[in-house]
Design brief:
The chain is of the alpha+beta class. Among the domains are: about 40 residues, no CATH class; about 120 residues, no CATH class. Strand 15 and strand 16 form a beta hairpin. Helix 5 crosses helix 7. The N and C termini lie far apart (about 60 Å). About 30% of the residues are buried.
Length: about 400
């Protein structure tokens, strides 16, 4: 029988005020719109995601806030949230999520008219809840789990060593298997719904369905913390294949629902979308799906360099041709404000190319305002290639693949 140590959170009160920012665009506020205590919380809890400058002569006596690649809702205090709007349209964010988290098997009715990021998150949570409730109606998957316990009767096998060590005990140390629904497949779902409800950002019309899904699981499944990593590289069978897209969606929510930044069960959890990470995952999955033979891509390749093999890093993407051990190019995704590549960006990809023994290095940007260009540094060719997220992703993706393979086709 499952149990929950985590209460379902209530909805946010009406007194909350929200400051709205656009991604990568500074927001200037007069001193009275933010208190020193609130500014200190933003600096402490969201420093790597929201840059903040306190009122000084340099800022003309104003607060200056800027979202650095993270979008979504940042709960500062119970009555103050920061809401960051993405520069990418909600429709394209959804399509990026479909690729990045392999969500194509799920149906998402009504997403064509979604206009706000909160609404997108809420609709995705609603789809997860409805699909989970459908699985509950068919019956949650159960499995035999090995257990050890001391019982008043023999069940399964007797642990003779433990029994000999303490022969005076009336209880028998037994090893046995129990058929239970309290397994990881279901615990992942239960914990995800707890996080969603705790976040209190789901819309009022979605919350009842999400709560029903949570309660249906909590009656039989232990509700305890599960990492996003538990959702990947799982084994599925014919009986559990419908869990795979559900766990993919759980991974999305668990990766992007951050920890509460103050103590107490009533604290709202942030739901934040790491756009640089999403861009990296999206580009990787897009290339996996659209690169023509004989080309293929490897993501997150580990490289060890240095005389003592003490320098380790991961390359975002490495482009190969089938049958060749040496890669054609290394790729590094750069989700940032448009402009020319920085010296640090160029030095980084040159190091990657040198480590992999290839002559081409590619910086991938999301904006057409960063022009495609090519420069030669020593024996390395450094390219900037755009995957345009502003328009039709199919068109932008086709141009990106064409630019990437230019000069490498046989």
């Amino acid at each position: 029988m499952g149990n929950s140590r985590f209460p379902v959170a209530a909805s946010i009160g009406d007194a909350m005020r929200t400051l709205e920012l656009d991604e990568h665009m500074p927001l200037r506020l007069p001193p009275g719109q933010l208190s020193d205590d609130e500014g200190a919380i933003i600096l402490r809890d969201f420093d790597s995601r929201i840059s903040i400058e306190f009122p000084t002569r340099k800022t003309a006596g104003q607060w200056v806030l800027c979202a650095e690649g993270w979008v979504g809702r940042f709960p500062v205090t119970p009555d103050l949230h920061l809401s960051v709007r993405p520069k990418v349209t909600i429709g394209n964010i959804f399509r990026m999520l479909e690729y990045a988290y392999n969500l194509k098997e799920l149906e998402f009715p009504g997403l064509a008219d979604v206009g706000e990021l909160d609404d997108l998150f809420s609709r995705l949570a609603l789809v997860l809840a409805r699909r989970t409730l459908a699985r509950v109606r068919r019956g949650l998957h159960a499995a035999y789990v090995p257990l050890n316990d001391e019982l008043g009767y023999l069940r399964g096998t007797l642990d003779t060593r433990a029994w000999i060590r303490r022969p005076w005990r009336v209880q028998l140390p037994c090893g046995f298997e129990e058929h239970t629904r309290d397994i990881d497949d279901n615990r992942i779902l239960a914990w995800t719904f707890w996080r969603i409800l705790r976040g209190r950002w789901a819309s009022a019309d979605a919350v009842p369905t999400i709560r029903r899904a949570y309660q249906a699981l909590a009656h039989t499944v232990t509700v305890e913390p599960v990492s996003a990593g538990a959702c990947v590289k799982r084994l599925y069978t014919r009986l559990t294949s419908d869990y795979e897209p559900l766990h993919a969606l759980c991974r999305f929510f668990l990766e992007h629902s951050g920890p509460a930044h103050t103590r107490g069960e009533r604290r709202t959890l942030p739901f934040l979308l790491d756009m640089p990470r999403l861009f990296e995952l999206f580009v990787a999955e897009w290339l996996q799906a659209h690169l023509p033979a004989p080309y293929f891509i490897e993501a997150q390749e580990n490289v060890v360099i240095g005389e003592a093999d003490d320098l380790r890093f991961k390359i975002d993407l490495v482009l190969y041709r089938q049958g060749q051990a040496t890669p054609l190019a290394v790729l590094d995704t750069k989700y940032k404000k448009p402009g020319k590549p920085s010296e640090a960006d160029i030095s980084q990809v040159i190091a990657y190319a040198e480590a992999k023994g290839c002559s081409d290095a590619v910086l991938v940007y999301p904006s057409v305002l960063t022009p495609d260009r090519s420069v030669i540094v020593g024996n390395k060719r450094i390219q900037t290639i755009v995957f345009d997220l502003a328009g039709d992703l199919q068109v932008g993706g086709s141009r990106f693949v064409a630019g990437l393979l230019r000069g490498h086709t046989a």
